[in-house]
Amino acid sequence: MSHYKPDPNKSVNLTIDGMPVTVPEGTRILEAAEKLGIKIPTLCDHPDLCKRSLCRLCVVECDGRGKLMAACANDVWEGASVVTNNLRIMNIRKTIIGLILANHPQECLTCVKNQKCELQSLTETFGIRESPFRREAALNKAPKIESETLVRDMNKCVKCGRCVEVCQEIQTVRAINSSCRSTQYEICTPYEQALSDGPCIFCGQCAAVCPVGAIYEYDQSGEVWTALNSADRHTVAETAPAVAEGIGREFGLPPGTITAGKMVSALKLIGFDKVLDASVSANETAGEEFRELLDRIKNRSRLPLITSCSPGWFNFARKFYPDLLDHLPSAKGNSGVSAKTRYAKESGIDKSKITFVYITPCIGKKHEAMNIRINGCRDADAALTSREIARMIKLAGIDIANLSGTPFDCIKAGSRDDVPGGVMEAIVRKVRNAYTGENAETPAYNDVQGNERIGETAAEIQGAKIKALAVDGLANARIVMEAIRRGECDAAFVEIRCCPNACGASDGCGAAT
Ligand code: SF4
Ligand code: SF4
Ligand code: FES
Predict the structure, then answer these.
(1) Which atom of ligand 3 is the closest one to the Cα of 59?
(2) Per-position DSSP letters for 60-73, written without gaps between them
(3) Which position has the higher pLDDT, 113 or 283?
(4) Which end of the chain has fewer surrounding CB within 10 Å, N or C?
């Protein structure tokens, strides 16, 4: 058992490809090389996941001994002399890629990850035109469509293990696993069951980290095109705030190029009758939650109130903490009605004639739209990720970067009690102001447990402290939920974000994470 605990305040001197470099103790060889501008190729490594060292693409030679070490899994040491590239290392890497390609479908042109696939990019970098190895495995597993949310095409899996790691360690769900060894090694669900039959909460994090097109969102653009081209359908898009940025990334444009206004113009050009801003609904929901929190604090009941805009979190709570569901807000969304029902009511258009489409970076929202029913009604008719809507805009031949902006449509009655801004801070501020009549700002979050993923803030109300927690990622959510279960959580309000890096970490954004 290793007792090695790196001290980040201690410096380590080494040479990489003959160049001297000094880095803090605990730095991986991979990162030390990056500091010198040397990019060592990787496939299984991911910055948010722990060291797994499965693909061996990142091998380097150390101290002239010829011994190969994985640069992603080994920390630097004083006086090390690392070689990242020579003919031997290059040939080993080419052999590894060739072996992977021998068992990978040659379907790049039709793959969802075409031009964004890490294997494709490595193949290009190494100038590999064909695999020298004979194909051993039959690539004939049919892709599985999971709850109209995710597609798992295990023929394309390169067995990097990222999805298993994120599902098991980051989200603590354990819906997918690996089985067997050597050539039989594969990524699977227990007993090959559908994800919906296991603990999967459809957070989409496995798709977000997959380097190839083995796990991706279920494409609903076909049915949306049909609705857009039907004269008797009234089509409504509701877009989440991060979508414009995600579309920009899909078009390869610098951040900030695609404004919300340009996005609305593009959506109108492809045929949507109305384009709504989801943050208006989010603010209304926050208004309802503020009233509910006020009520619960007054009655000292069912605290903390736990809010979230992540559908994956609600699935997580239902599956793992059914005994704590009364801590969730009683109204899901606005007054417990589906987005489509609310729109029909406020616009006066017959609900049967409306096709309501969520456009969101969140794959979990796809699951919510297609599978969760509120008062017997599906939340929306379809949910498109930023990637899907960007493809639709491209297909329509729209030069989105050069469009002028169009404002969002507004159908809101205007009488609701909106709470704009970050949900937790805004609600805590509003609760305090309701008590004190003040208009002061909520204190900034203070990190607790030395971990930025559980942030804490407190408002002083008539001498009493009202504490609120902001939690990122489900592993951290579990810590808080267990404390609530034990009766040891003294917060009045908790906001949980399902994805460890918030909405930007969802693959629907077009973000490589
Ligand atoms: S969607 Fe989330 S819970 Fe389901 S398998 Fe993927 S990472 Fe695990
Ligand atoms: S499905 Fe994707 S993330 Fe999971 S092991 Fe296969 S290639 Fe890696
Ligand atoms: S990237 Fe280092 S072993 Fe895969």
Answers:
(1) 2
(2) EEETTS--EEETTT
(3) 113
(4) N
